[in-house]
């Protein structure tokens, strides 16, 4: 009992001294993503973008509220849902109230379930899940919850926009769909089948298969099947090492049609494709890089390159996460009451430097934004990826994509 009393007095004294000295505790954001293993380059580049965005957009401008800075705390989840849950608990135990994750919808599904359970059982230590890249539609549909906010477009929204471009190409009569064997890969395949069937029922799907995530060393057998199928185009949601391995193998084995992708840029992928991907690789994404969307974005990108000469801003939505969180905290008047912060995020309209207004749809916490379809090229590229001379040039834009799309979310609010 005496020991507990002494610790309580010590803590109170520390708080009093901090207040007297004008100290403002940092707002910590746990970054839980792969920093080792086959997807380490993707996770590391995302971490650099988070660290830069926090400093550039918030900290160097005086922080939030009473001068509180954003601090990004990195946790390596090794792309494992089990490891992610361990790191989540470590972050919570450290008093961190904001969790950022994006690589792997399998991880995101585990995190959102765990966070929902934790928040119901522990109202004094609730956390928010800032999902910046995991796009399984279920996360903002049947598995939605109040604590989860998605800042990327989900797989259905992306495929709806991407298939608008595909069906406009009358030379495409046959399509091969291939992806990673987990929730996201399955969602991409289902969406491609659905939208192609609705928009161009004459297009034949000549292949639809999944492969183990992060385990295929040689994609030659898959590439040979694609070529043998007579496909005019390939659709894949692959990312990281699996995107690079599949794409290079398909091209090297003689496929000459367009390859429509979700994540075929940056993190070494653009440099590896180089000239072989020119005019072949197409990408659905948000945020205008080439051409740059605004002078503000140009200044931010140039500042980022000064700090990370070999790095890329290939996930500009990370800047939206930081900017919108800062705006929500200011609006709530607190960074510690995550319920009030969440209420500010719901329905927020935010002017993104990367392409105009974005809108956090309140009914399912899905961010609505412009979607761009671009091509891998070295022509008219102001900001290349991987210092390769190649980048993604926007060819078409779908404004506020899927603003009125249906959701099955039935959200329970605290």
Q: What would the keywords be for this entry?
A:
19% strand; alpha/beta; 2 domains; 40% helix; Rossmann fold; 414 residues; transport; signal; seven-stranded mixed β-sheet; five-stranded parallel β-sheet; BCAA_transport; Peripla_BP_I; 12 helices; disordered N terminus
Polypeptide structure, described:
The strands form three sheets. Strands 7-6-8-9-10-14-15 form a seven-stranded mixed β-sheet, sandwiched between helices. It has a five-stranded parallel β-sheet with strand order 2-1-3-4-5, sandwiched between helices. About 40% of the residues lie in helices and about 20% in strands. Helix 2 crosses helix 11, helix 3 runs parallel beside helix 4 and helix 7 crosses helix 8. It is α/β, with parallel strands linked by helices and about 425 residues long. The N terminus is likely disordered. Helix 8 links the parallel strand 8 and strand 9. The protein folds into two domains: about 220 residues, 3-Layer(aba) Sandwich (Rossmann fold); about 160 residues, 3-Layer(aba) Sandwich (Rossmann fold). It is built from twelve helices and 15 strands. The two termini are about 35 Å apart.
């Amino acid at each position: 009992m005496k020991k507990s009393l002494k610790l309580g007095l010590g803590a109170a004294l520390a708080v009093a001294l901090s207040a007297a000295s004008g100290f403002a505790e940092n707002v910590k954001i746990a970054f839980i993503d792969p920093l080792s293993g086959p997807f380490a380059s993707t996770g590391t580049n995302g971490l650099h973008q988070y660290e830069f965005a926090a400093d550039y957009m918030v900290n160097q401008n005086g922080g939030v509220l009473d001068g509180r800075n954003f601090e990004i705390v990195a946790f390596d989840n090794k792309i494992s849902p089990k490891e992610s849950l361990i790191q989540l608990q470590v972050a919570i135990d450290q008093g961190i109230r904001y969790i950022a994750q994006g690589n792997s919808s399998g991880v995101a599904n585990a995190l959102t379930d765990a966070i929902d359970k934790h928040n119901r059982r522990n109202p004094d230590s609730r956390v928010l899940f800032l999902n910046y890249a995991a796009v399984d539609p279920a996360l903002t549909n049947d598995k939605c919850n109040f604590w989860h906010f998605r800042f990327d477009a989900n797989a259905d929204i992306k495929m709806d926009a991407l298939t608008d471009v595909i069906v406009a190409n009358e030379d495409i009569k046959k399509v091969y769909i291939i992806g990673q064997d987990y929730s996201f890969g399955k969602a991409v395949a289902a969406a491609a089948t659905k939208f192609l069937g609705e928009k161009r029922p004459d297009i034949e799907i000549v292949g639809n298969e999944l492969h183990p995530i992060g385990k295929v060393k040689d994609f030659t057998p898959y590439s040979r099947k694609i070529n043998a199928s007579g496909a005019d185009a390939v659709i894949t949601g692959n990312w990281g090492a699996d995107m690079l391995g599949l794409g290079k193998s398909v091209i090297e084995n003689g496929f000459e049609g367009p390859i429509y992708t979700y994540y075929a840029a940056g993190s070494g992928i653009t440099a590896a494709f180089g000239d072989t991907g020119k005019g072949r690789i197409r990408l659905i994404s948000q945020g205008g890089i080439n051409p740059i969307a605004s002078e503000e974005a140009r200044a931010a990108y140039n500042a980022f390159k000064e700090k990370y000469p070999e790095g890329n801003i290939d996930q500009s939505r990370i800047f939206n996460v930081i900017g919108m969180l800062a705006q929500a905290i200011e609006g709530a008047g607190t960074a510690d009451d995550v319920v009030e912060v969440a209420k500010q995020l719901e329905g927020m309209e935010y002017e993104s430097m990367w392409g105009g207004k974005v809108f956090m749809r309140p009914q399912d916490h899905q961010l609505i934004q412009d979607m761009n379809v671009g091509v891998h090229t070295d022509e008219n590229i102001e900001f290349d990826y991987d210092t390769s001379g190649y980048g993604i040039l926007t060819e078409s834009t779908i404004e506020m994509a899927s603003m009125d799309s249906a959701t099955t979310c039935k959200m329970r609010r605290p």
